[in-house]
Amino acid sequence: MTTFALVGAGPGLGLAAARRFVAAGHRVALLSRSADHLEPLVAELSRDGTEARAYPADVLAPDSLTAALGRAAEELGPVEILQYSPVPRADFMKPVLETTAADLDDPLAFSVKAPVTCVQAVLPGMRALGRGTLLFVNGGSAVRPAPRVAGTSIAFAAESAYARMLHDALAGENIHAAQLIIPGAIRPDAEHSSPDALAERLYALHTGRDEFRHYAEPLPG
After folding, report:
1. How many CA atoms lie within 13 A of 76 on its CB side?
2. What is the DSSP letter of 113?
């Protein structure tokens, strides 16, 4: 049995994605900065007999990410699917003319250095398995920069470039990198952007293994 590792676990999309991959026979490693935040998610999944465990890690602390993903692989089995979908902090979203060079330090660490760290941690296990999936979830500013949210626009664009390069570089090793763009808010009543609908879409990206970029909904005009 292999592991679905979710970086940025939460009660909405994260929990729905975990349930979908559990239904496909995977164990679940939930990563988030707060252990208290993870406990109810593990309890919720465990009620169904799922083997899910919490691994507190801060995406701005690379060593903690590497250690958490290493423990997950040791305790649950090799990571076959990595989903990187933490929610950016509000202070990343300053208008472009108010954004300084220092303001970009954390957004770039969050959206570039942390994903690189995660991929480097799980890639040896995927290669040993002979398969793997890397799922990146971003907002619409990843493909259409928005001057009111300069930090995420810049950092998401860099993350997109990295993920796209992974898609091309790893395809020959049966390791698929894909990006899901969610242009608007995730709402329980949304046809295509509810947690359950998005979880189903992420699972389809894992099994479909075709293009790099996918959209939950069309970008607004």
Report:
1. 26
2. I
Q: Please write the tens of the pLDDT for every residue from 89-111.
A: 999 999 999 999 999 999 999 99
Rounded-to-integer distance, Cα 131 and Cα 80, Å:
7
Name the burial class of residue 20, with classes exposed (0-12), middle (13-18) and buried (19+) by CB atoms within 10 angstroms of its CB. Answer: buried
For the cut 80, the answer to whether the pLDDT of residue 76 exceeds it is yes
pTM above 0.70, yes or no: yes
User: Any residues with CB less than 8 A from the CB of 46 and at least 6 apart, and which?
Assistant: 52
Rounded to whole angstroms, the Cα distance separating 130 from 15 reads: 27
177: β partners = 134
DSSP helix/strand/coil, 134? strand
How many residues are given for the chain? 221
* Rg for the chain, CA atoms, rounded: 16
User: What is the C-alpha separation between 68 and 72, in angstroms, rounded?
Assistant: 6
User: N- to C-terminal Cα distance for the chain?
Assistant: 44
| Residue 105, SS3 per DSSP | helix
